[in-house]
């Protein structure tokens, strides 16, 4: 149902380096690369994540209550991806662990303050 998610950035070059390294751990690569936005996905036509400089030219800001959840293949992958995000300069919003029946997740903010999580169901 969701085709892609966009996250605003005030520094596309910095965001690109962060997401190249982080999403590369999931097998994602750049599918679109333009001066104002970049899109990563695991294969052409798959759901993706974009970093974008706002079209209106105003500074990018984070949305209160907005979060992007990225599906991982295992609890171990959640742990590894969370650790990679923190290593790349992301900030902790909730260490990896169980969050209810069969739901395992870790929460972090990217370099622009956007909130994301990696999760595994099972």
The CATH C-level class name: Alpha Beta
* DSSP summary: helix tally: 2
Whole-number radius of gyration? 14 Å
Give helix % range: 10-25%
Overall, the morphology is: globular
Give the distance, in angstroms, between the N- and C-terminal Cα atoms.
21 Å
The secondary structure category is alpha/beta
**Quaternary status of these chains?**
single chain
Number of E-type strands: 8
Helix/strand order: EHEEEEHEEE
Q: What summary fits the major beta sheet?
A: 4 strands, mixed
Plain-language structure description:
This protein has one domain (4-54, 67-121): Roll (2,3-Dihydroxybiphenyl 1,2-Dioxygenase, domain 1). A hairpin with a 4-residue loop joins strand 6 and strand 7. By secondary structure, the protein is of the alpha/beta class. The protein contains 2 helices and 8 strands. The chain has helices at 12-24, 75-87, and strands spanning 4-8, 29-33, 37-41, 48-52, 68-71, 91-98, 103-109, 115-121. The protein is globular, with a radius of gyration of 14 Å. The model has no long low-confidence stretch (mean pLDDT 96). The chain has a 4-stranded mixed sheet, with helices on one face. The protein has a 4-stranded mixed sheet with strand order 5-8-7-6, covered by helices on one side.
């Amino acid at each position: 149902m969701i085709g892609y998610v966009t996250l605003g950035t005030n520094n596309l070059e910095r965001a690109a380096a962060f997401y190249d390294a982080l999403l590369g751990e999931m097998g994602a690569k750049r599918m679109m690369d333009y001066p104002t936005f970049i899109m990563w996905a695991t294969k052409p036509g798959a759901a993706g994540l974009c970093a974008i400089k706002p079209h209106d030219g105003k500074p990018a800001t984070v949305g209160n209550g907005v979060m992007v959840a990225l599906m991982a293949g295992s609890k171990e992958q959640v742990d590894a991806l969370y650790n990679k995000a923190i290593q790349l300069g992301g900030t902790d919003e909730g260490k990896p662990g169980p969050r209810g029946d069969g739901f395992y997740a870790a929460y972090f903010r990217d370099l622009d303050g956007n909130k994301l999580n990696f999760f595994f169901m099972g």
